[in-house]
Design goal:
Number of strands: 11
Bound molecules: ligand TUI
Helix content: 40-55%
CATH superfamily of one domain: Aldolase class I
Order of helices and strands: HEHEHEHEHEHEEHEHEHHEEHHHH
CATH class of one domain: Alpha Beta
Radius of gyration: 18 Å
Largest sheet: 8 strands, parallel
Strand order of the largest sheet: 1-9-8-6-5-4-3-2
Length: 312
Amino acid sequence: MLTTSLCNILGIKYPIIQGGMAWIATAELAAAVSEAGGLGIIGAGNAPPDVVKEQIKKAKSMTKKPFGVNVYYMSPFVEDIIDVVVEEKVAVITTGAGNPGKHISKLKEVGIKIFPVVSSVALAKRLARTGVDGLIAEGMECGGHVGEITTMALVPQIVDAVQIPVIAAGGIFDGRGLAAALSLGAQGVQMGTRFVCATECTVHPHYKEVIIKAKDRDTVLTGYHGHHVRVIKNKLTRAFEDLASTNASMEEFEKLGAGRLRAAAVEGDVVMGSVMAGQIAAMVSNIQPAQEIIEEIINDAQKVLTGLQKYL
Ligand code: TUI
């Protein structure tokens, strides 16, 4: 059986975490992933606290297994979201786009585990000192907001820099990816793009179709001043390129980007919406139940790891 320290810390069967994608990772997906033995995550994004509370209650009605919430630190509601996760005593939070340091004692008081996302060694070291339970090392292969370092280079550097469990994210699709992450010293993986195409994911069907059709070079980094977002190429990304060639201001980039993820994920506008996805989108070729995805990955990782022993 493929288990790691992450499974013991979180009380889960398999070391697989589902990415907490804003507008995409709803209670239905989170509950399905947790029911299948992984850790499902509700993406709070910029949602107001009452919506997040309702999502948590819905997930609790669908599974008795642990699940988590991703807290997006750029949200205007971040303080209220922390209050909601504390009230609801969710098992774990992952955090993105900011430093959860000031909330750690409040979260720990009610036994909530904290796994911040990091994309650099300096931030990993800083956050490890605040007493978090583990770190999610996100490589630049990921969809959405990304750093500058690839998963292959980032994970071993962070593993060597901290004493807490590290979860690898970015470019992981199957059992080979899980086995590779474990080989780099990670205690598990986080996957976003593959779970977007889970049957239980409530994202608009057009979003899933675009991921299924994507080929190796179909994602691109858009953004400005070190703020990069990986999305699938479309009319919107070409508009971003045109804007970049005019030396536009940050405000102009923000105006063009506003509301685009919701447009793609909820309305299904995959032409002028922001279809965030990782580079492994090219490997996603069908829609499968979360349980099938997880079992396939675990079985294949076990085969890969046993196969490797022949060469040792
Ligand atoms: O956050 C992400 N990925 C994202 S966020 C997003 S877009 C969005 N749109 C609407 C609503 C909500 C979200 C799409 N993808 N990844 C996690 C991540 N966080 N990667 C890097 C970081 C990060 C960056 C800076 C974490 C901390 C940090 O600074 C902390 C400090 O104190 O310096």
